[in-house]
């Protein structure tokens, strides 16, 4: 067979024309049937993105054809590309449900601290009960010892006032422990101690100084504590030149409305000061007089109190030296229950 002529048209060759004819017809039909390109495809072409290539075409060939001026061969699977682009651009409706959640990091942190504190208390206590004495006359001393051991003066100011019970008792709370406070006994003990500490009894001067029958030791105790005797209403004149046991002479006695005092009260004071020299003390008859005064000026049973008045009485307990009973021996406070023990049971 002879080679084709140089000047002949490429369509004269059947082998060369067949692919072109087939391509042109199929391409035209596919282009007519294919949907119009979407906005996403136009945007990609406008942005300078590469046009998709057919699967059987390699990347170097199109570049070489472009350089040689040969027109690019359009990809055959146009319909598949258009369908995929259309599926990508279709908007999908997603149903959203917003559920409000009440949440606070501060409350969560406080709750965690509270739980950790409670756990530490449980581990440390190991079911240890600090108060075991019952509220009965036979266990007054045991109850007082427990209160003295577990309650410090600073804790009274930290107690929470729950309320008043039966117009005579104050219910307080400290951590998980519940206490009952006798409002009259508490106020009476506070007033009594204030009288003990600050009252200076007025003395009545004797017409003639009275000689005292004292031993040398007792006379020395009296001379060393003259200030305490004077606060109790007793006064003496000291003669340094007199012989021992005769140097001190009584010149004044304390007086009150219905109370009388004498040398027996001096002997009692000397006995008390010999054990605690320099410590302010009162003879028993003076204490009885102060207890009677304190009782009359204290809050009575049956008196309604507001929160501030109850707070004042409880706070005063932290200012006493011995807040656990009144001057007549009645208890001022007792432990009722522990809330942790009740919740466990």
Automatic annotation (TrEMBL):
GO terms for molecular function: ATP binding; ATP hydrolysis activity; ATP-dependent DNA damage sensor activity; endonuclease activity. Pfam families: MutL_C. GO terms for cellular component: mismatch repair complex. One of its GO terms (biological process) is mismatch repair. Residues 161-305 form the MutL C-terminal dimerisation domain. Keywords: Endonuclease, Hydrolase, Nuclease. Residues 10-19 have a biased composition (Low complexity). InterPro entries: MutL/Mlh/Pms-like, MutL_C, MutL_C_dimsub, MutL_C_regsub, MutL_C_sf. Residues 1-77 are annotated as: Disordered. Heterodimer of PMS2 and MLH1 (MutL alpha); this interaction is required for the stability of both partners. Forms a ternary complex with MutS alpha (MSH2-MSH6) or MutS beta (MSH2-MSH3). Part of the BRCA1-associated genome surveillance complex (BASC), which contains BRCA1, MSH2, MSH6, MLH1, ATM, BLM, PMS2 and the RAD50-MRE11-NBS1 protein complex. This association could be a dynamic process changing throughout the cell cycle and within subnuclear domains. Interacts with MTMR15/FAN1. This is Mismatch repair endonuclease PMS2 isoform g. It comes from Sus scrofa (Pig). The lineage of its organism: Eukaryota, Metazoa, Chordata, Craniata, Vertebrata.
């Amino acid at each position: 067979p002879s080679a084709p002529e140089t000047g002949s048209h490429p369509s004269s060759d059947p082998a060369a024309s067949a692919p072109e004819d087939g391509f042109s017809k199929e391409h035209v039909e596919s282009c007519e049937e294919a949907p119009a390109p979407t906005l996403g495809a136009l945007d990609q072409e406008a942005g300078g993105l590469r046009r998709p290539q057919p699967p059987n075409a390699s990347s170097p060939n199109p570049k070489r054809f472009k350089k040689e001026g040969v027109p690019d061969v359009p990809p055959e699977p146009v319909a598949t590309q258009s369908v995929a682009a259309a599926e990508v651009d279709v908007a999908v409706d997603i149903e959203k449900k917003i559920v409000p959640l009440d949440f606070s990091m501060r409350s969560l942190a406080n709750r965690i601290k509270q739980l950790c504190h409670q756990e530490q208390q449980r581990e440390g206590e190991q079911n240890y009960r600090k108060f075991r004495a019952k509220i009965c006359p036979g266990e007054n001393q045991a109850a007082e010892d427990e209160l003295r051991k577990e309650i410090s003066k600073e804790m009274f100011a930290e107690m929470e006032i729950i309320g008043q019970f039966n117009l005579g008792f104050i219910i307080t709370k400290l951590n998980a422990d519940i206490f009952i406070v006798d409002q009259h006994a508490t106020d009476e003990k506070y007033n009594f101690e204030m009288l003990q500490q600050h009252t200076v009894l007025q003395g009545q001067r004797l017409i003639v100084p009275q000689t005292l029958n004292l031993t040398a030791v007792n006379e020395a105790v009296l001379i060393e504590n003259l200030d305490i005797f004077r606060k109790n209403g007793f006064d003496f004149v000291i003669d340094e030149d007199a012989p021992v046991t005769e140097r001190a002479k009584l010149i004044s006695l304390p007086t009150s409305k219905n109370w009388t005092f004498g040398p027996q009260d001096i002997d009692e004071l000397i006995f008390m000061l010999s054990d605690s020299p320099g410590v302010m003390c009162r003879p028993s008859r003076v204490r009885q007089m102060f207890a009677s005064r304190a009782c009359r000026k204290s809050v009575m049973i049956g008196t309604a109190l507001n929160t501030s008045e109850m707070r004042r009485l409880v706070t005063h307990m932290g200012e006493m030296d011995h807040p656990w009973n009144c001057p007549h021996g009645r208890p001022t406070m007792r432990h009722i229950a522990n809330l942790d023990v009740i919740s466990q049971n």
